[in-house]
């Protein structure tokens, strides 16, 4: 087991900066997932830890050792990739033990390690199977067992579940969590799938265009995204955004107004361009507003498309400007729309005029230009005295 530390790691490929000044510390035994859209630098960052890529700048440490220039085999890491390369002419035992035999362990030790690893990934009784007699999930487990037998300090996994079907992927997520619990080894995991990242990790590192956006526990990224990118990337469906300008008493957007004392927003001044963010589950029909601690004033809307998901209904709303545009048969722009999620028993239909409100305690404000978060949750003074919200914590800290 070991701690992993990246210090100002940059990787430059001619005109592409694949990794841009990334620093982070991963604790011994921690499960950290690198997540972000395709091409954001997840794999390259991991490859600098694996030793498959040498950073153009910066240092990589595993434990107390500077491994920046060390060969992969000398780093105490084991890797599992998306494309499982099992030897087709070898059975499971031979596939799992291949690396050990290269390292000249004696037969007894090899047998012991392979049986233990097969047990952990639940492949007991399958050691004499050939790869083509196994399912995709079983083959992936062989690949993981092959990594386990090496007894690494750090596991590096690059989209190991990407080629599996949806059901198996969900199952393997649980298996990997169990594996982590049993082995206690540091795991760095790469995925573009934010649901995978959210469900498995102790912390997630969100990357965009080679830059680290936020590294925090999944729920912190969800509830207190550091910037607009994280807010939009984490959570499905995505957060709603509306751009506006701050005046003396609140934020005015094209379709609605939210009252807020500018002095309550750390770092903001009147006249600033601010983007409001609110998740679909924090948009409510006005008639349900009583259940909320604090709601915004009602916002005029018209229901557009409904998507019943079984456990909830996604309601696409057109706001005032969007309704006007739709009458002129112009496409509505995204700021004229709002996605609301309601419980499946909600009485709502398409093309219905409704009033909606936003849960003030769940409103996020971001600086439009830089994208940086300003606050999470709005409160007024009277609630400030009794309540606790993210805004209060931030304002006080
Ligand atoms: P991700 O894993 O997030 O999809 P990568 O780390 O694979 O992203 O790639 C980050 C960026 O670096 C991409 O723009 C990619 O095209 C570029 N890149 C990666 N490897 C190389 C390489 N060997 N040569 C040139 N460009 C590369």
Automatic annotation (TrEMBL):
It is a peripheral membrane protein. Part of the ABC transporter complex XacGHIJK involved in the uptake of xylose and arabinose. Responsible for energy coupling to the transport system. It is found in: Cell membrane. Signal peptide: none annotated. Belongs to the ABC transporter superfamily. Carbohydrate uptake transporter-1 (CUT1) (TC 3.A.1.1) family. Residues 376-397 are annotated as: Disordered. This is ABC-type D-xylose/L-arabinose transporter.
């Amino acid at each position: 087991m070991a701690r992993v530390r990246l210090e100002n790691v940059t990787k430059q490929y001619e005109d592409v900066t694949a990794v841009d000044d990334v620093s982070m510390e991963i604790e011994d035994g921690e499960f950290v997932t690198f997540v972000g859209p395709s091409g954001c630098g997840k794999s390259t960052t991991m490859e600098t830890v694996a030793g498959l890529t040498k950073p153009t700048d910066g240092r990589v440490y595993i434990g107390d050792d500077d491994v920046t220039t060390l060969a992969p085999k000398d780093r105490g890491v084991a890797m599992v990739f998306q494309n499982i390369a099992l030897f087709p002419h070898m059975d499971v035992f031979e596939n799992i033990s291949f690396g050990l035999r290269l390292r000249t362990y004696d037969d007894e030790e090899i047998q012991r390690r392979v049986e233990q690893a097969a047990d952990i990934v639940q492949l007991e009784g399958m050691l004499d199977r050939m790869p083509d007699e196994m399912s995709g999930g079983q083959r992936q487990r062989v690949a993981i067992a092959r990594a386990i037998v090496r007894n690494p300090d750090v596991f590096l996994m690059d989209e190991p579940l990407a080629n599996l079907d949806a059901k198996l992927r969900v199952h393997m997520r649980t298996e990997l969590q169990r594996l982590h619990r049993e082995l206690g080894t540091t795991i760095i995991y790469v995925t573009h799938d934010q649901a995978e990242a959210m469900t498995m990790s102790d912390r997630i590192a969100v990357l965009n265009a080679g830059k680290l956006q936020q590294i925090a526990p999944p729920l912190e990224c969800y509830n207190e995204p550091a910037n607009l990118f994280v807010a939009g990337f984490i959570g499905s469906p995505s957060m709603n955004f509306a751009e506006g300008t701050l005046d003396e008493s609140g934020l005015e957007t094209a379709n609605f107004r939210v009252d807020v004392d500018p002095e309550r927003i750390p770092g903001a001044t009147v006249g600033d361009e601010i983007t409001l963010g609110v998740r679909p589950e924090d948009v409510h029909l006005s008639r349900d507003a009583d259940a909320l601690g604090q709601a915004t004033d009602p916002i005029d809307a018209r229901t557009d498309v409904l998507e019943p998901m079984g456990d909830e209904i996604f309601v696409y709303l057109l706001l005032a400007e969007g309704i006007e545009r739709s009458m002129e048969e112009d496409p509505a722009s995204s700021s004229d729309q709002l996605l609301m999620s309601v419980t499946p028993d909600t009485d709502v239909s398409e093309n219905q005029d409704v009033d909606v409100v936003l849960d003030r305690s769940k409103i996020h404000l971001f600086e439009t230009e830089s994208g940086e978060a300003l606050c999470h949750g709005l409160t007024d003074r009277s609630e400030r005295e009794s309540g606790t919200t993210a805004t209060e914590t931030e304002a006080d800290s």
